[in-house]
Amino acid sequence: MYKAVFSDLGETLVGFTPRTYEVVYNILMESGYELDKKRVYRAYAKVVTSNLYPGSNGTDMLDIRDLLYELNIYPKESLIRKFDGSLKSEETKFLYDDAIDFLEGVKSLGLTLVLVSNATPRALSTVKEFKLDKYFDKMIFSFEVGLIKPNPRIFSKAIDFAGDRAVHI
Fold first, then answer.
1. Are 118 and 9 contacting, i.e. CB atoms less than 8 angstroms apart?
2. Which of 45, 91, 112, 159 fits as disulfide partner to 16, beta carbons 3.0 to 4.6 Å?
3. Each residue of 104-153: pLDDT tens digit?
4. Is residue 96 domain-shared with residue 72, that is, in the same domain?
5. How does pLDDT run across 13-66, given as a tens digit for each residue?
6. Residue 40 has what DSSP assignment?
7. Domain residues for 36?
């Protein structure tokens, strides 16, 4: 029987729009590249997860050149300029409809709830904005502990707190 639930934040409890890969996809389509949105997403996920490093400011920004190479697109300067500012635009945050029900359900079962997130320091304000902090027994952010998921050591921090009879959502 599980004793704890480890939950992610981004795209699990809180969503963001527009998603970075969607911005990339739209710019590439407008630039005449015919690509499948799933292909752009997969390339984005591969590049981001292979180049994430935690720091006090969160994780490193996406290097659009790396993503273009992954998509077999030569990163011409004229194309790179189209991305200037587009990837740093402010996202709209929203709480998924079932997030509170999920958190309250976990707590009603008497389970320990630990947030394990690769988020930037902005995530702290997001957690407070949506009043999610009251549900968590512990919050572990990659920028604070110097580890990025899926590195098992970040989960070890959660296990040290809540025990190993846990599931990650």
1. no
2. 91
3. 999 999 999 999 998 778 888 899 999 999 999 999 998 888 888 888 89
4. no
5. 999 888 889 999 999 999 999 999 999 999 998 888 776 666 555 555 678 999
6. H
7. 19-88
Q: What share of residues in the chain are helix, strand, coil (percent, to 5)?
A: 45, 20, 35
Domain C-terminal end among 88, 120, 139: 88
Q: In angstroms, rounded to a whole number, what is the distance separating the alpha carbons of residues 20 and 62?
A: 9
pLDDT-based confidence at residue 92 (cuts at 50, 70, 90): confident
- Taking the C-alpha atoms of residue 70 and residue 56, their distance in angstroms, rounded to an integer, is 28
3-state SS class at 10: strand
Bridge partners (DSSP) of residue 115 are: 7, 139
Co-location of 83 and 98 in the same domain: no
The pTM score is: 0.79
Angstrom distance (rounded) from CA 73 to CA 5 = 41
Asked if residue 53 and residue 116 are part of one domain, the reply reads no
64 and 31 housed in the same domain = yes
Burial of residue 88, with CB atoms counted within 10 A of its CB: 0-12 exposed, 13-18 middle, 19 or more buried:
exposed
Whole-angstrom Cα distance, residue 47 to residue 52? 9
